[in-house]
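Protein record

Derive tokens from sequence
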Amino acid sequence: MINSITLTNFRNHTSCRIQTHGRRNVIITGPNGAGKTAVLEAVSMLSGDRGLRGAPMGDIARFGGDGGFSVFALLGDDTEISVYFTAGDANRRARIDGDSATLSDLSARLRTVWLTPREDRLFVDGAAERRAFFDRLAASFDSAHAGRCARLSKLMSERAFALKNGRDVRWLDALDAQIAGVAVSVADARVRYAGELNYFLTDCAVTVSGMVEQMLIDGCAASAERHYLEYLHGARELIGDKMVVDGPHKSDFGVFNKRLNLPAALTSTGQQKTVLLDLILAHAKLIHTKTHRRPLILLDEAAAHLDADARARLFRDLGAADAQVWATGLDANVFADVPDAVFVACKDGEINNILVPGNTDEQD
């Protein structure tokens, strides 16, 4: 959990500090453009990720500043962590308790997952968006998964280049052997994650479909790797200028709404949002069970598309979540029933006050 966080020259925040007072729910409210999402973005970077917007570092630095930014947090166990970027530097830097650290070191301290308005279309957009979303969830469950996905993408690009340029068979054989091994690892992580997540889901179920994933479900890793390698050996043709080959880079995820007995893609926007929130809360339970650490859940415009009953259910579930939840919204009154919450008022890039229920004193 985060006890306090300080942003310096981050987006439209010159300098601001938020204290959570140890609360499990942090509700950030204010008008559009006030900097609410920027706070969530800053929190998301503390786990070593590029952030929920995936923006270039130079774009995150406050316009008119020195071209750099920093995010500093004090955790519940008194550990101090920070991420900072300096103009002219190629990458972000990290510190833990004042000492230099790698970004991957941060992921061991904080596990973070988020929902933004972009994910509201997850079930109606293409498979690539769903893969990216679920792979991000799986990566916070299996920290090596993101690296495997990146390696698979790189190897596939190298294979396409080799085919276009007529590289010899031995080169392609070596590439295909590497691809088959990594592909099975990626598919296996997805299948295992879906199974683990479904244990914590009651009103919906996650499925993963794909060539290699099905090979694993039907057999074992060794046979899946062998069969996929045979497939790659027989799929070395180009159509036009493109390599046409199946694999984990073409796989898809599905979610079935048990309440309505329908795939999530066929339900309303509000029902899809409810399913997404169910997934995120189940993910938090899974992470807490496996790591004994409370993850951070970031919900941008948390109550959007939800009716009164759905909001009441969300707030009830937030109270029982094994996580610290950071949520944004326009109206603080909508979140009045959120338990164990601290309220942060955000306006014009400034944190004006923190209102703790039952305490009318203003905080910095």
